[in-house]
Amino acid sequence: LFAQIEVGFPDARHDLEILSGLGDGRALVYWRFHGTHAGQFFDVPASGRKVSIKGVDIFRVSDGRFVEQWHIEDLAGLFTTITP
Fold first, then answer.
1. CA atoms within 13 A on the CB side of 2
2. Is 55 helix (H, G, I), strand (E, B) or coil?
3. Distance between CA 82 and CA 21 in Å, rounded?
4. Could you report the per-residue pLDDT of 31-65, keeping only the tens digit for each?
């Protein structure tokens, strides 16, 4: 996935908007992804469109290691924006 993002959105940027401890070794990260669809992303050729989507990750840490991750992002919004 990261290779696809690098090719499809060479100017990709993630902005962390909220970082918050939730207790029980969990942390919430609310972020926004920005980029210009300047290269092929999966099977979608470059559209030149700018995208901005939101996402949330919740991480659980135990003994100083990440042991679980829950991840949500607006892929439907991303593909709706870049698909003709």
1. 1
2. strand
3. 34
4. 999 999 999 999 999 999 999 999 999 999 999 99
Tokens for 39? 């290269």
Radius of gyration of the chain (CA): 15
What percent of the chain has pLDDT above 70?
100
The pTM of this model reads 0.86
Q: At 70, give phi and psi (nearest 5°).
A: -115, 135
Place of tokens 């919740």: 58
Residue 25 phi, psi (nearest 5): 75, 15
How far is Cα 55 from Cα 5, in angstroms, rounded to an integer? 15
How many whole angstroms separate alpha carbon 58 and alpha carbon 46?
31
